[in-house]
């Protein structure tokens, strides 16, 4: 029996089976993503963001005092209520967070105070497992998974990777990601191009806005991780796996904004929504 011209029932069954397997694989990935967000001290646990200056300052509901030293460090004064790596702070201790990287975690009971550096600014992010954003988390909404959003893209590397400057969701801050080239692809017959940033495990990160940004998806853009280019210079981009940056989930993140050039002219109705 045929279902359409040139298509057999076996072909249709195979397509259905492949589609079900694709959806199941995505569902497992998305469940793992949500479980990561539920981590006791993950992004959903943030309850405060305090910026430091050279004055030793006490903050509401935090033990000790904290100050930026002006030479790359943060001094913490406490009487045993705080600890770093399990060692209580008695008197004054110094930590040196690195710009753009996760901060140094200071233990305050079940909470963690993340000491961060962003360019030449220093701050504290309080991570509390009892934060309502974590305890009431019911998942991240997403568009229906669809294989049509898996595209092949041509990667063109730069002669040398280069640092670029992008804005941040916090006024006055900047980020300096490494751009490694461009990726070009077509969606609905329209050519699109994005600056590719250095990603995980030798892959690429595509941080972009599109026609859904600020409408059905987070206005500050979304990001998708892509594997390393193959021997022909192509990568596979699965927009079903586009995710929100932490700033879409909490008011206490300092996320980068996408490069200004990374604005797609089409609506990517795939991946995570607002």
Automatic annotation (TrEMBL):
InterPro entries: DUF1684. It comes from the Bacteria. Pfam families: DUF1684 (PF07920). PANTHER family: DUF1684 DOMAIN-CONTAINING PROTEIN. This is DUF1684 domain-containing protein. The lineage of its organism: Bacteria, Bacillati, Actinomycetota, Actinomycetes, Pseudonocardiales.
């Amino acid at each position: 029996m045929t279902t359409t011209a040139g298509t057999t029932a076996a072909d249709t069954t195979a397509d259905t089976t492949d589609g079900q397997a694709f959806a199941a694989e995505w569902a497992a990935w998305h469940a793992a993503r949500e479980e990561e967000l539920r981590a006791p001290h993950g992004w959903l646990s943030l309850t405060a963001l305090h910026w430091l200056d050279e004055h030793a300052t006490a903050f509401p509901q935090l033990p000790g005092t904290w100050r930026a030293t002006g030479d790359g460090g943060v001094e913490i004064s406490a009487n045993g209520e705080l600890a770093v790596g399990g060692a209580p702070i008695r008197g004054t201790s110094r930590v040196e967070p690195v710009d753009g990287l996760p901060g140094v975690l200071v233990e305050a009971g079940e909470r963690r105070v993340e000491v961060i550096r962003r360019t030449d600014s220093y701050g504290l992010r309080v991570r509390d497992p009892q934060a309502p954003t974590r305890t009431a988390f019911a998942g991240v909404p997403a568009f229906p998974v669809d294989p049509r959003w898996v595209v092949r893209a041509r990667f063109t590397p730069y002669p040398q990777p280069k640092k670029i400057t992008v804005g941040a969701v916090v006024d006055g801050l900047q980020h300096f990601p490494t751009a490694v080239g461009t990726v070009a692809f077509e969606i609905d017959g329209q050519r699109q191009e994005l600056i590719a940033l250095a990603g995980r495990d030798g892959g690429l990160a595509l941080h972009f806005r599109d026609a859904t940004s600020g409408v059905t998806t987070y206005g500050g853009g979304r990001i998708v991780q892509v594997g390393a280019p193959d021997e022909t210079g192509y990568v596979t981009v699965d927009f079903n796996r586009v995710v929100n940056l932490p700033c879409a989930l909490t008011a206490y993140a300092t996320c980068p904004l996408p490069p200004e050039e990374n604005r797609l002219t089409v609506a990517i109705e795939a991946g995570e929504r607002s």
